[in-house]
Amino acid sequence: MRLIIVVAVVCVGCSRDECDGPGHVLKSDGNCYELDDGGVLPAPWLVDDGLAAGLQDRQNRNRGLAAADFDTDGDIDLYLTNPGDPAVLLRNDGTGTFSEWSEAPSTGNDTAVGAADFDNDGDPDLWVGCGGWGAACLDAVFRNDGLDPITGDLRFTEVSADADLGTAGRQAFGVAFGDFDNDGLIDVFVSNKKDWSHGTTSSADQLFHNLGDGRFEEVGERAGVAGLGDSHNAAWLDVEPDGDLDLFVPVLFGDNHLYINQGDGTFTPAPDTALARPSAAFGSAAMDYDNDGLVDLVVSATSGSGWAPEDPGEETVLFHNDGGGAFSVIALSELLGAGAARTMPTMGLTVGDLNLDGVPDFFLGNGEPVSGARNALVISTPTAGRWSDESALIDQPASQDTDPAPYRSYPYRTHGAVMIDVDGDRDTDLVVGNGGMNLVPDTEEPNRLFRSALSATSSPPATLLLRLQGTHSNRDGIGALVTIEGSSGGPVTRFVTRATGFTCSGPAEQLIGLGDRPGPYTVRVAWPHGSTETVTVQRSGLAVDIVEGGAR
């Protein structure tokens, strides 16, 4: 059943157990909805399946999560960082069941991670941020060399020395890929946090310009983006838009930074931008939430953490891109139609389309479970500009594995998370990396997989799976804007990015939900290099390869 219209708004502070009228249901956002045929609600469509899928391994200090088809067999694998313990590389067998590769590339103190094809050879490589906690250290770059023909193991070769990453280690906490000079090569922005452990390491953020021969040049100061705030994440987006990627950097203590690309290799700070807030910003992600062709931003705030006494208690904010560099502020409570601010100590953040209606949904991972905070799941509704709190779908402890030692008590501490199709059934699942509860460092926390059942319903939402291949633009198509129009209904747009939130990285393929829009579909790809590709797809459920300047 689809919830199709808001029929009543429950006043804040009112006590109400049910809605008036047949076929109406009271949702957790406080609104009454009418079902499309007055029937019953479906069973929960997100199912806890991490244990059976082999994903619910134990991690003490999980930080980052990268989802990519590392072995190029057509399904999405996972890489999880784990500071102080070995990283984990999980191979997908095609059904969303995972097994661990024998060895995962690692710095030894991994925090953030990004996966993208920085050498344009057709497979995703790894940039692993080092530090975050403990001693500062150098990031590492690992080139994907494919499967060993004898052992079948996935081969990564560390090329950090050739990449020329410098000699001074830092406390890296965010990796964001984007081609800021449109030369067809993916560049890397690294967000660095303050050195809380020793206080001697620079917190200046870094921008690594891809030189195209396996080397990178650090140009952060010259480009004007070497901010000294305590940053944990960054998001590339084209603000104006003018064809150049701009850069947003959330800052934990101080104003956030929006850097405007000048098209000559340099950036200038945006004046008097609304994006300076929220305070205590932790994560960010770029997307076009209202399908108007302009890239918007969501920025999370870790409010009420207790270790930031100057924290004013702000909530996660959605910034609507008004064009020309202006943004409107929409707080989380406004999205939900709530009367009071919805604050939480948010660390984990990811964006995707879980209900496949063509509008982004948001996952917020709590960073202080000892305070009682829980993860939040915010799902779009059929009412434009209104989302619903559907956290009950995931608010449950993990099933105990065979280890006699129990997990840390629920709720868990969440960092990296991604919304991806783990089993290739054309719906979006939620993968959550847990761990990092440094107040209880020897107690393990389980990672989670919430598998979607939407594709198995009698009338599943329409979808298209797009695989982009840039030729003049970077091969992954990072920075492209995809617009899909059906024979009726409004357009759906997708800004192509790999960084989808805090310490997480999504796959190159784009599973795009189209809701009830019927085909045939017109798909337009505006490539970063400036060209536009248009193809027609006859029906939902198809996978489409689109090559820049060539046929499907």
Unreliable residue stretches: 1-17, 33-41
Number of helices: 3
Total strands: 41
What separation lies between the terminal Cα atoms? 35 Å
Strand content: 35-45%
Question: Top keywords for this entry?
Answer:
552 residues, 5-stranded mixed sheet, single chain, globular, 3 helices, mainly beta
Describe this structure in words.
By secondary structure, this protein is mostly beta strands. The chain has three helices and 41 strands. The strands form eleven sheets. Strands 9-8-7-6-37 form a five-stranded mixed β-sheet, with no helix packed on it. It is globular.
Q: What's a concise summary of this model?
A:
With 552 residues, this protein is an all-beta fold.
List the helices and strands and how they pair.
Layout: E1 3-9, E2 24-26, E3 31-35, E4 46-48, E5 58-59, E6 65-68, E7 77-80, E8 88-92, E9 98-100, E10 110-116, E11 125-130, E12 140-147, E13 154-158, H1 160-163, E14 172-178, E15 187-192, E16 206-210, E17 216-218, H2 220-223, E18 235-237, E19 246-249, E20 257-261, E21 267-269, E22 281-287, E23 296-301, E24 317-323, E25 326-331, H3 332-336, E26 346-352, E27 361-366, E28 376-380, E29 387-389, E30 414-420, E31 429-434, E32 445-446, E33 448-452, E34 462-469, E35 481-485, E36 492-495, E37 504-505, E38 510-515, E39 521-526, E40 532-537, E41 543-547
Parallel strand pairs: 6-37, 34-41
Antiparallel strand pairs: 1-3, 2-3, 4-33, 5-32, 6-7, 7-8, 8-9, 10-11, 11-12, 12-13, 14-15, 15-16, 16-17, 18-19, 19-20, 20-21, 22-23, 23-24, 24-25, 26-27, 27-28, 28-29, 30-31, 31-33, 34-38, 35-36, 35-39, 39-40
